[in-house]
Amino acid sequence: MPVTVTRTTITTTTTSSPTIVGSPRALTQPLGLLRLLQLISTCVAFSLVASVAAWTGPMGNWAMFTWCFCFAVTLIILIVELGGLQTRFPLSWRNFPITYACYAALFCLSSSIIYPTTYVQFMAHGRTRDHAIAATTFSCVACLAYATEVAWTRARPGEITGYMATVPGLLKVFETFVACIIFAFISEPFLYQQKPALEWCVAVYAICFILAGVTILLNLGDCTNMLPIPFPTFLSGLALLSVLLYATAIVLWPLYQFDQRYNGYPRRSLDSSCAYTHPHSVCYWDRRLAVAILTGVNLLAYVSDLVYSTRLVFVKV
C-alpha cells in the first residue's frame, strides 16, 4: 500500500559545510538554461525601454527598476553557480536563490500588469509604443521563468531543505510583497490620519511586515539559532500573532473607510478625488478599496502560513 508523505523536513542550523549547488557546468543544466532565459528576457525588456526612454513617471520607473534589478541579481547567481562559489557567498545558498526567484516573479508580474495598464495604453502609436509593448512581453516571459524556477526548486514532502523553499517560507515572501503594495497605496497620510482605528491598521501592516522580513533575513543569514526561543516556536507564534492582527485590520479598515457613520465613502462617486482621472495616479477611494482587498489577501496568506507551519519537521544537520 503506497504511503503519502505530508510533512516537510527543513534545516534550521548548519554545523557542517553546506552542499554545493551548481558547478561550472551549471549553464548546461535545465535550471541553468532557465536562468539564462531570465537573464536574457529582463535584459531585453529594460534595453527596449531604455532605447526610447519610455519609463517616465513612477510606474515606468518601477518597471525599469524591476527589470534592471532582476537582471543584475540573476547575473550574480549565474556567476556564483559557474564559479562554484556557493560556500563563499555571504548568504545561505539553501535559501537565497529560491527567495530571490519568488520575489523576482512577483516583481515582474507587477511590472507586467502595471506598466501596460497605467503607462503603455496612454502612449501614442509609433516606435516608442512598440518598444514598450515588446518590453511588456519579455517581462511576462521573465515572470514565467522565475515562477518556473520556484516550482522546480521548492521543497517536496520529506525533503531536507532550507526553510525558504517550503510553503511557509514562500508565503513569507508573498506576505512582505503584498505589504509593500499596501504601503504604496497608503503613501498619502491623509488616508489614515486623525482616525486611531486606521492608524492601528497601518501599525498592523508595519509590524507584520517587519516580523516577516526578520524571519526571511534570519534564514538568509543562517542565524535562526541566535533566537532566544526555538525557531519552530517563533514561527508558530509569529503566524498566530499576524493572523490576529490582520483579523482586526480586515474589520477596521473597511469600516472606517467606507461606512458613512465614521465619515467614510461608501461609493466611489462621493470621493471628489475620483472626479479627475490621470493616467499615472490612483484616486483615494480606489486606494482605500485596494488596501481593503490586499488586507484580506494577506490575512488568507497568514492563515495558510499558520496551517502549513504545523506540518514542518525541523532538524539540525
UniProtKB/TrEMBL annotation:
Query: Which spans are transmembrane here?
Result: 33-56, 62-85, 97-120, 132-152, 173-191, 197-221, 233-256, 289-308
Q: Where is the MARVEL domain?
A: 26-158, 163-314
Q: Which GO terms describe its cellular component?
A: cell-cell junction; plasma membrane
- Where does this protein chiefly localize? membrane
Q: Which InterPro entries match?
A: Marvel, MYADM-like
Domain of life assignment: Eukaryota
- Where found, per UniProt? Membrane
The record describes its membrane topology as: Multi-pass membrane protein
PROSITE patterns, alphabetized: MARVEL
List the keywords (alphabetical): Membrane, Repeat, Transmembrane, Transmembrane helix
Annotated family: Belongs to the MAL family.
What PANTHER family is this protein classified in?
MYELOID-ASSOCIATED DIFFERENTIATION MARKER, MYELOID-ASSOCIATED DIFFERENTIATION MARKER MYADM FAMILY MEMBER
Q: Protein name, please?
A: MARVEL domain-containing protein
Q: What is the organism field in this record?
A: Myodes glareolus (Bank vole)
